[in-house]
Amino acid sequence: MKDTLLRQIYEQTLSGAYDQNTVASLSETLQVPKNKITFALQQLFQEGRLIKAEGKPVRFLSRAALENQYNLSISDTKIGNLELWLAGLAKEPADFEKLVGYDGSLASLVEQCKATISYPPNGLPLMLTGETGTGKSLIARLTYEYASRQGLLKPDARFVSVNCSEYANNPELLTANLFGYVKGAFTGAEQTTPGLIELADGGVLFLDEVHNLKGECQEKLFQFMDQSIYHRMGDNKTWHTSHVRLIFATTEDPEKVLLKTLQRRIPMNITVPNLSKRGTYEKVQMIHSIFKTEQQRLNVRIKISSTVFRLLVSYPFPENIGGLKSTIQSSCVQALFQINDSGEMEITAKNLPSALSKNISVASLNKLEEPSWIYIDELLDLDHSAGNDLAFYQEIIESLENPDTFFAVWKAESSWLIQHLSGENSALCEQRLYESVRHVCAGYHMELSSKDLETLQKALGSFLRQSRLLHFLQSQNPLQIEKLTLQMKKQKFRYYSMASEIDCMLGRAFDYKLNDLHRLVLALLLSGLEKQQSIPKRMGVILAHGLSTASSVSVCVNQLLDEYVFDAIDMPLSISQEQCIRELNDYLKKMDGIEELFLLVDLGSLEDVWKGLNIRNVNVGIINSLNLKMALSIGEGLKRGQPMEEIFETAKNTCTVSYHIERNREKQKLIICSCASGLGVAEKLKTVILDSLPPDSSIHVLTYDYNSLLLKGIEDLAFAEYQVICVVGTLNPNIDRLPFVALDDLILQESTNSLDLYLKSYMDPCALAIFKKNIVKNFSLSNIMNALTILNPTKLLEHVANAIDRLQTLIDCQLTNNTCFGLYVHVSCLIERLVMNRGIENYKQIEHFQTRQKQFIDAVCESFQDVEAFYGVHIPVEEIGYMFDYVKNDKNFQKCV
Ligand SMILES: Nc1ncnc2c1ncn2[C@@H]1O[C@H](COP(=O)(O)OP(=O)(O)OP(=O)(O)O)[C@@H](O)[C@H]1O
């Protein structure tokens, strides 16, 4: 009757007539009393052949029918909402895809299982070892499903599973059940019964907890493995044949618990990793998958608190996935009546077994419970990139198993992270963050491209977004992270220190604190980004007291040399020597990889500084003198790549100290005599002025070339020693703030006051009176002429005066007396110079003058014809230029023009 009932249910399940699989309906169809149907259904359900759909009335479904129909293995036995559950089944993935981690931590295991079961002709025996609850049974079943789907098994081939531990106290019974027995083989063997090996013919026999198999049974088993034949218990004559693919599983070490002969016959031994090795993301997937099943079973939307999520991910379940599953199931039972107004089941930490939440105080439990809920349906969508990132972080932590190689692992991983982050479209593109990161990097001489900076910025963005996940990762692996931090500080302090600075900056800018794991990953990222760049092998550091002394000198030298040779450490005056040294040591840590350091310190003895330095793999040269010249000399040596000692020697020699004291002194007073007519006139002027000065006068009189005076003014070094009172000459050189006294003024005595005026401050009144008297006497025209020329002054003056009269007629202008007298002197000197071949040859813009003042030039030429003829000279046009300059300032001439 049982078989008929099972067949009926099988067909009705296949045809979808689930409503006919009730006690009442089946009793009616099969014409069997309800109580007998109920009893048989109960038995079949316990055997795992039926699935029970709760409800009114209860319905039963054939497991085999559904498994064939959906081509999958069903582990559920009782279901809540049948329709929902069936909808879920339709979406179920095939065989190994049901295994969380099939393409992750279990990828190679899956490949091995597939290869072993497919090995021709009948597959190879496979041993699965692993802690309890790691998924050995599931993997065995999925291996069967895979073989079945691949057509490696007969269509009706079964997966027969036997748990050897159930027979631990009765090994005979296990042998009987495995190989079958004949009637009378033992007490109670009322009829000949086929064994499980026979039932599994063409399919898969899974022997779980195989370490419970007694030696005798093991021996029987390997005989069967060799030849596919066996005896039933109680009949040692008849051989039976069965072709079975065998899968074994044990939580023990097979080498310790199985006979060597059996071990040899199991060529493939696969270890199933325990939950803690699966990586956080796979744990999250498992939590999701288990809750999802419960959600379907209970037909409610489930949400869990973030604490529940954190605890489930971080708790080290001794029963592995089995433990996680039963914890989740029990939490759902506990929360069965915690359905909110929206019909959602809310699972909080209070619904978890006490073992999980024992580390959380009631207060913090309540506090922690307040915030976010996570819907099961959205669990995997927390952050799409979270999966990869978490696996990445996990891998970093796992690489710690072998600290010697983890930097190598990191190197590879960092390029993954860089790539990953470069492709990510981060929302956190704030210029402030970007600039701050750049600022920190620049402080470490790490010049990053904008793309690299963007990568860093995205990394920080990803930290901010995934803070919840990363914080529980941190809490999950505190020891590894501590160990890693120590290694990082030791080997890559530069990057760790940079990450810490970025952390501070983040704190200020976004009120966000990185945890150790963040900092490590950031440091790793920075070291990855810098792999293309070279940290300077040699560097200079200026260490000086004052708010910006060191930085000013270093900036100046770097600019002058156009090379970054100096860093600076500014020391406020209030800080102690120890603090300075501490700062310097911090700097040295930052500059991890530097080989030589040139240190310029302003204060403190050399010993104080170098004794306090923590030097490892760095040569530090210290010089206790700081000035720009010294810094420049050392900077130049650094730039040229000279050896350290040579650099210091050169600096020492170029910077020898010398001193000079310039005492305050009164400058001597000076009158400059400078004439466009030439130095000769100036010399004569000088003699006349000197003769006019009282004998005890301290005023100096010097001659100076007129053109040089125009060019250089009184900045000329020749005047450095003097305080120039005024210039006396024929033409005003018009020098700023330098008074001019015209010769003609002196001759005409019209403005003796002008010279008096300038000399008044430098002479006592008595001396000034003598000077004035002498000037009147000495500066009469004839006196001047006498002093000026070697020619006969009376004759010369007569000729010149006639020529100038004629000139005035030709240009039709009556010049002032001043101009006339000035011209007499000037032209007389001119003639004398020409006689002596010392004519002036240059005049500014002579062509311009020639074209513009042609009329004047012609007038001069004509009026001076007699003079030229008499003295046998020719007045060149340049000299006429100077005569014009004399005339042009005349107020009458200006009116005529
Ligand atoms: N990779 C996985 N993906 C999804 N669920 C899994 C996975 N591994 C195990 N499970 C689930 O975890 C539970 C325990 O797995 P299973 O019974 O196969 O472990 P086991 O190693 O055979 O344990 P034991 O040694 O105690 O028999 C099962 O409900 C199984 O469906």
TrEMBL record:
The protein's organism comes out as Dubosiella muris
Q: In its UniProt entry, what is this protein called?
A: PRD domain-containing protein
